[in-house]
Design brief:
The complex is a heterodimer of chains A (about 525) and B (about 425). Chain A is an alpha/beta fold. Chain A has helices spanning about 5-15, 25-45, 60-95, 110-125, 180-190, 215, 250-270, 285-290, 295-300, 305-325, 325-380, 385-390, 395-420, 430, 435-440, 465-525, and strands at about 100-105, 130-135, 135-140, 155-160, 165-170, 195-200, 220-225, 230-235, 240-245, 280-285. Chain B is about 60% helix and about 10% strand. The chains are: A alpha/beta (about 525), B alpha/beta (about 425).
Chain lengths: ~525, ~425
Amino acid sequence: MKADASNEQRFISEVDEFRFIAADIEEILRRLEDWLFRLNSDLRSSRSVSSGLSKRSALVYEAGSIDTILIESAQKWAQQWSRLRPAQELADSFEDKVLLLVFGKFNAGKSSLCNFLADRFAAHGKAVEYFHVEGGRIVETTEPFKEGATETTARLQGVRLSGKLVLLDTPGLHSVTPENAALTQRFTDSADGVLWLTSSTAPGQVQELDELGRELHRNKPLLPVVTRSDIFEEDEVDGEICKVLRNKTADNRAVQETDIKARAEEKLTMMGVPEALLKQPVSVSVYMARGKNETKSALSDAGFDGLFSALVEIIEPTLAYKRRKTAETFLHHLEENVLDTLCCDVLPLLSELDMSAKNALAMLERHLDQIERAVLRNVLPTLPSLLDDYATTRDVNVIYESLSGSIAIAFLHETEKQLTDYTVVLDAQLAKGDGSDKAAFKEMTCQHPREKIGPDKVVEVDYQRLHAALRRWIHERVRTQSRSLEDQCRTAVQNLMEWTSRVEVLVKAQEQSLLNLKRDLRANHS
Amino acid sequence: VFTENDEQHGREIFSVLPNRRIDLERLQALLGNNEPVVTVIGKYNHGKSRLLNELIGKDTFAVADKRETVKLSNNIQQGVCWLDAPGLDADVGTQDDRHALHAAWLVSDIRLFVHAAKEGELDSNEQTLLAELRADSERTQRQTIFVLSQVDQLPDDDELRNVAAAINSQVSALPLHAVSSTRHRKGIEGGKTLLVERSGIPALRSKLDAALLRVPEARAHETALLFSEIFGDLVELRAQQESALAALVQTHRQQRHEFDIGLVSVIEKVSRDIDAMLNSLGIDHAILPDTAQDAYRITAGKLERAHIQIAYSKACIELDGFLAGHGVISLPTEQQTSASSLNSVMIAVMGVSVKFRKDLRRIFCEPSGLSRLQRDFSHFYELSTDRKSLSEQIDEVESSIRAIDRSRSFLETLRDRK
């Protein structure tokens, strides 16, 4: 390279000399495939556990929707991967080219910058080929991009320079017509780096970068370009206003660039992408460069020397990216489709479910207290007449059976009313109690004389103690039954919670192992 | 204007009407009755601070060719409070921006919506904000003035017309005030009248002066509007709570009524049984003490004591069954003793046992005894778990109604104080 060559010449000749050497990426590809295989088989064997819970309960519904995602994911991922194939083919046809995404708002001056760069290549005798996307197809044209302060570009257009460098002017995915969406997406997917154009009028509206999240997460370098870095100066001369367009001063440009750099860094950190992707911002004025007949010094004053030098700098990492592109594409699929489903859809659902489960456990005790009280309110009032009815026959067994029956029925009724989220089993045995309880209640008659001679005299049947014992017995039975219900419910909820934490651990482990694979890929092939 | 007591009331209103937070804060600002507030709203670096400086005629706010204003700053000049708010969309995620915008929204009477001509059309954030401002103007009569700034940065008048047409197609029926602060400053400093005139600043200033004259009227309208809407909400809310309360009180009364009726009849029944039993006894043997030899005989006294004990326990059992049916199952926790066998309402009311005729008569057959039973059991009924939780619900609704009433009379005081 000639020492006195301008940055423009350096850039144009670098573009001319693009050579691609595919790196050996087979091993890392195999490891990525293994990762997906293991994940799929782990997920298949992780269905939710909902025994003890009613199918109509919110918990089962929530768990069910997680199950559905897990079951349907494998197929969905396969489809998404096959949809990425055309992008892969598109990328293949651009294999020996560098694709730069020219991103920015409608008034950021994207068209005029692209046209200007094309003109510079033409001025050096290089090929310039324009195209745009229409009706879902690529249409070649000789027309440069339309320019205008109030125009809204609603289609993707591009220009190939020297047959090696492609500038893609994208209107942003929001304003694309549906039939062009797929192709636009494929183009942006294939892009190797991003020029972020931001007007000097309100430079660095960093919220625009949200739209670039996908590209930045794909580790594509980001070069902020402050456009329209010029200013009209006016004066009143002989009763008329005269105006002159000037470049913004170097100081003024430096102030804006520093400000953008600082805020964009903050934004990237918030988005969780490496700050290193962000290049030093540059300021340019296409008007000033054109206005002064595109002389070498006009270009330099208008900021293009700086822009070309920055472009030279991003070509090298772009080429490195390109060499490992096949593996990167698969990795992106794993990150954006597979892990994204798990981390953005499944993990939040899991923690929501966990929260619901904890709430259910917290409510359980109160529900069962209410059930116990309702059963007691039902059963205890039957005691006086039962005792009356069986006093003459003194048939304690019938009383116990009758009470067991009422307790069982009351529980059935109350659980249907108040434990709708669970499928509990009411063990009738628990309402019956055992023989040792009954053994204590033989003293049904009393006030017999202690005389050794003559028969006992039965005054009347007294059942005060029997009543007290029965009352205690009822409380105990109700308590036991209620504990058994509580255990059943608690176990059901806890089983579900164990499942959620199992899946969560699994997802986090997979996430970590993919991060390791990504680190290896970028370390060994950059 | 606001006392400490007012602040307490203020906090209560916020909790009574959480959805009226912004309106209440705005009302607070209106009642402060300070100078009219003019604020600039728009993207950063569109020349908002510079515009204020030119309108005031004095370098009041700092300017730079980047995002400069990062917090709300105000300045009172010529009887007007000028408020410089940070530009929109500059910030990454800090809350400062939103707080500042919120504050500007609350205190401002006239909003200058600033948009730089060189940017062409409005973007979607600007359109949304402008639509909100215009809707608010409709409602509150606070004025919004569209300022197309930095027109000196357009190449010529044709371009200015293009930009104006593009913006007019986005927002209809809103006059655009084209201004250039730079032009104005240069004209003033160099004594160049054409620059001053073509800066649009004098025209904007007279538009602003006319708008300022209308501020008192607009404030009166807005104050009345906010009071009437908030009073309307309070009335509606009170009606909702009243009907919730009426339903709860009805349930509460009905339950008690059923309990009272049932208690009267169960007490009548046990009273009748005991009366019949006592009348069948004849001579009172129970008071005769047994002698030593009686230990081996069935004496009349023994028989009688047995009868009394049995009758008494039957009565207790009958009452216990009735109480349990109404949820009086155990003693309230605070009255329970460590001896669990004594933790029953029956024992608390009736004692452990009764041996003599006169005791039974006193408890079950005399008016004073009967009314004591009625009173004591009712007392424990009101302390039962289910009953208490119903009472608590009623208390909660009642206290929220009281809070509504306090808020209302506080607002009335504020309105009258004005």
